[in-house]
Write a structure and sequence with these properties.
This protein has helices at residues 9-21, 55-59, 77-85, 98-106, 129-135, 156-164, 175-187, 191-194, 204-212, and strands at residues 2-5, 25-28, 32-36, 49-52, 71-74, 91-93, 116-122, 139-150, 169-172, 198-201, 218-220. It is α/β, with parallel strands linked by helices and 230 residues long. The radius of gyration is 19 Å and the shape is elongated.
Length: 230
């Protein structure tokens, strides 16, 4: 099976190795460039908990002091793994969706309405988690600490590889990535090829976007469950 991965290499290398070991052919066309946003380092002692909805939020975390015991609520197991690698000891993982993360926080025994929470995220989010939590009575400060810029260029070599190895599955991990991917497909005359592939979407919102763009074969998945979808 030909499988196209659109995440940056740092986020997809392990998955690509697993897919390759199972005999699949891997195509890698990153659709987003992640860069650090320069902000003042955060003092973790000003907060009772951190929220991370992506591994990039952890990689671009800048702290003025160390506090490895602060509660860290992560959207899924991959994000929690990165938090653990950074040395955080009290981590909690949701089921891979922001809605599951919201429920995890609301029902947490570690937090109450007096808790101060820092929510780290990128400049483009598809779900206003901070607003929903504030409606539940929590005090949340949203801190944008990285940028996700669209990549819309494609080399001649990459285009030729795609044309000679039409993807059976395409994994898309955000709405902005979806938008970038569609632009690439149109700009490089790959639209007829790509719309025949099954696109695997990280959320219903992303799935609806592809449906509006003419895709017929669409599925929704949770990060970490990619192998279960094969």
């Amino acid at each position: 099976m030909n499988i196209l991965i659109t995440r940056p290499l740092i986020d997809s290398e392990n998955l690509m190795e697993k897919l390759f070991s199972k005999g699949h052919k891997i195509l890698h066309i990153p659709t987003l460039k992640i860069s650090t946003l320069k902000i003042k380092p955060i003092n973790p002692n000003d907060f009772d908990a951190f929220i991370f909805t992506s591994a990039n939020a952890i990689r671009n975390l800048k702290l003025s002091k160390e506090n490895k015991k602060i509660f860290c609520f992560c959207v899924g197991s991959i994000t929690e793994k990165i938090a653990r690698q950074k040395g955080f000891q009290n981590t909690f993982s949701a089921g891979g969706t922001v809605n599951a993360l919201k429920n995890l926080i609301i029902n947490s025994e570690q937090l109450n309405e007096k808790s101060k929470i820092a929510y780290f995220c990128g400049d483009n989010i598809s779900y206003n988690l901070d607003e929903d939590l504030e409606k539940e009575g929590f005090k949340v400060k949203k801190i944008v600490n990285y940028l996700a810029e669209k990549i819309t260029d494609l080399s001649d070599e990459s285009k030729k590889i795609i044309e000679n190895n039409v993807p059976d599955l395409i994994f898309i991990y955000s709405l902005r990535s979806a938008q970038s991917f569609v632009e690439i497909s149109k700009n490089y005359s790959l639209y007829p090829i790509m719309t025949g592939s099954t696109v695997m979407c990280i959320s219903k919102k992303v799935a609806d976007f592809f449906k509006s763009k003419g895709w017929k074969k669409i599925e929704v998945f949770n990060p970490g469950d990619e192998l279960l979808k094969l």
